[in-house]
Amino acid sequence: MTKVIGAIAALCVAVAVSSCSAGAGSAAAPPPADEPASREGGVHLDPMQIKQLRIDELSTESPADVIKATGTVEFDADRVARILPPVSGQVQELALNAGDSVRKGDVLFVLSSREVAAAIADHVASHKDLDLAEKTFAMTDDLFAHEAASRIALQQAQNELAKSQAKVTQSEEVLRVLGIDPDAEPDASRLQSRVQVRAPVGGVVVERTVTNGQFVGPDSTAPLMVVADLSSVWVQAAVFERDLRHISAGQRADVTAAAYPSDHFSARVARIGSVIDAQTRTTKVRFAVANPGGRLKSGMYTSISLYLPAATASPTIAAKAAFVENGHTFAWVQAGPQQFVRREIETAPTDSDRLRVIAGLKAGDRVVSDGALLLRQLASGAAQ
Q1: φ, ψ for residue 137, nearest 5 deg
Q2: Which of 52, 120, 135, 319 has the most crowded CB, counting CB atoms within 10 A?
Q3: pLDDT digits over 316-334, tens only?
Q4: Does the predicted TM-score (pTM) go above 0.70?
């Protein structure tokens, strides 16, 4: 009996040892060679998978840095005149239409106005009063010299003369405000009660809302005409706040429009906005754009390339080598013959299809320029 029990115990020990050996062997078994696995935050590829990638070594080319933006063409507010009627009256001699060119000082139309007629009548009356006051003062002064008039009478005559002179000055100023030259006629009664409305700037009539014979008044807020100098226009663009540190007034930029895809319009930064849009995280930047031939029209959509100051030589990568996840930019870097790791980087745009690397990479690093999507899929599968 004792021998049977000992045999059973020996058999149990042998089974336990065999089970432990089998478990240890199972844990040490390597994964299949063709299955990618994550190592130290990277991805291990087999030779066939590596052939699907394009790997470039970082260069130190330094193309000109540029910020891209889109904008809309507007009239230059400093070169636009919105014509309002100076007085009430009837529009006459209107011969200009939208699209017509005018020079500074050209007559746009004429207003025949009762207000002007009344101002001329006041001016004529003031001259008559002045003539009478001058004669009265001369006579009183002579009488006073011969003791035939009192000093009070002389002072009254002087006072009336001063009032008459002030009235003439006032009436002349009213006429000038209305656009009438009081010195145009020696005889004030021959002045015409017609106001010539002239172009304050040279340019093109871009809007006309009035017709011949129409009665207008100075209380109107809508302009009768809009004249714009189109030799220079504004482009208002939305620029991300992260790019504002690279922008200053006077910087050079190029503007292109869909209507003229092969033409580049010279521009400069004229003003940088003071408010950041809470939704888009952008601010308005105004560009002053030279517009030869008036080809850029108000309302056109444009693309702006804002050139930054020249930077020192730095590594560059193909634009498609970088990808964004959760607001951070990454690239895949070859860390070994078959090992690739994801590395966070910081980049800046250039005027080519490459990105300048500010941080995260150095010259000589081997970066996956084509195939980053494949690595992201493999890394995602390995993580699961």
Answers
A1: -65, -40
A2: 120
A3: 777 877 888 888 888 888 8
A4: no
